[in-house]
Amino acid sequence: MQNVKAALVTGGSRGIGAAIVERLARDGAAVAFTYSSSRETALALAARIEAAGGRALAIQADSADEAQLRAAVNRAAGEFGSLDILVNSAGVLEMGPVDSFPIERLDRSLAVNVRGAFIAIQEALRHMKAGGRIVTIGSMARERVGFPQSSVYAMTKGAVAAMVRGVAIDLGPRGITVNNVQPGPTQTGMVPEGYVDALVGMSPVGRLGRPEEIAGMVAYLVSPEAGYVTGASFTIDGGMIA
Ligand SMILES: NC(=O)c1ccc[n+]([C@@H]2O[C@H](COP(=O)([O-])OP(=O)(O)OC[C@H]3O[C@@H](n4cnc5c(N)ncnc54)[C@H](OP(=O)(O)O)[C@@H]3O)[C@@H](O)[C@H]2O)c1
User: Fold this and answer.
1) Is 117:160 a contact under the CB 8 Å cutoff?
2) Within 6 Å (CB) of ligand 1, which residues are found?
3) pLDDT tens digit string along 177-224?
4) Which domain holds residue 69?
5) Are the CB atoms for 21 and 74 separated by under 8 Å?
6) Is 195 labeled as catalytic in the residue annotation?
7) CATH number of the structural domain spanning residue 100
8) Is 239 left (phi over 0), alpha (psi -120 to 50) or beta?
9) Which family does this protein fall into (predicted)?
10) Residue 32 maps to a domain
11) Protein residue closest via CA to atom 46 of ligand 1
12) Ligand 1 centroid – CA 202 distance (Å)
């Protein structure tokens, strides 16, 4: 496939990941994306993109499962013949007080949000050439936790931001950029219903973010003009940490 960028978005079936999938497809990329359980939603998204003349591939792969994740990266690269863009969006939000937080949920959060992002990058590098682009979806919570019961989630997003800086230094000489996009509260299934009014009340712009607004930043970071942008974290939060 000449001149068509090949992309993989982890956790692309819903929410922010789905908006990124749609945006990259609209910008002309062939886009593979993973999901863990929402098969119907994932297949419907892929079908919508294909019906609009794009190329999309939905792959079931649990980011906590190393073998599944590596296989998904290789399948995407195999189907498209290359891999130019990796976006790590798969993530889970586990909340709870520190004194009773179940260690299995801590392990799961680290496995999906941190270990999964690292493994996907590692596997993608087997296919990515100079000009490659890697973006992780972190969180505003890395800059300002702001809520009780968020220590584990904030820990994972802090780790992602630090990893991005380290990986960016390693990959600079190879011409591959690595950046981190940190959304504030964004309208997806991840924001618990009962929190919306409080979050809107805390927001200088008086609303939640839209997944498309996060996707717009990702679209810039994976574009050719962002070649000098690497190792950076960008917070998109309507001014909540201002
Ligand atoms: N929404 C916010 O306010 C907000 C704020 C800051 C950061 N973020 C970050 O943005 C990213 C996307 O969040 P979202 O709000 O779009 O969440 P979401 O609406 O809950 O969607 C999560 C997506 O990740 C996938 N996923 C979850 N666990 C997975 C796993 N183990 N393996 C593979 N895929 C998995 C889901 O797949 P299934 O459909 O199969 O479940 C779904 O596509 C996350 O990293 C999150 O931490 C979100």
Assistant:
1) yes
2) 10-17, 34-38, 41, 62-64, 89-93, 112, 137, 139-140, 183, 185-186, 188-191
3) 999 999 999 999 999 889 999 999 999 999 999 999 999 999 999 999
4) 6-236
5) no
6) no
7) 3.40.50.720
8) left
9) Belongs to the short-chain dehydrogenases/reductases (SDR) family.
10) yes
11) 91
12) 23
Half-sphere exposure of 211 (CA within 13 A, CB side): 18
Check whether 1 has a pLDDT greater than 60.
no
Pocket test for ligand 1, best of 8, 10, 13, 16 (most atoms within 8 A of CB): 16
Locate the DSSP E strands across 63-126: 85-88
CA of 14 relative to ligand 1 center, distance in Å? 7
For residues 25-63, b (16+ Cβ closer than 10 Å) or e, as one string?
beeebbbbbbbbebeeebeebbeebeeeebbbbbbebbb
Give CA separation, 228 vs 97, 179, 218, 235, in Å: 41, 11, 15, 18
On whether residue 242 sits in a domain, the answer given is no
User: Considering its fold, how many domains does the chain have in total?
Assistant: 1
Q: How close is the Cα of 18 to the center of ligand 1, in Å?
A: 9
Distance 87 CA to ligand 1 centre (A): 12
User: Is 1 within a domain?
Assistant: no
Best mutation site among 65, 118, 190, 241 for ligand 1, i.e. most ligand atoms within 8 A of its Cβ? 190
2 three-state secondary structure: coil
User: Does 73 fall in a domain?
Assistant: yes
pLDDT in tens, 22-71: 999 999 999 999 999 999 999 999 999 999 999 999 999 999 999 999 99
- Cβ burial of 135 (10 Å; 0-12, 13-18, 19+) is buried
CB atoms within 10 A of CB 101: 16
Atom of ligand 1 nearest to the CA of 111: 31
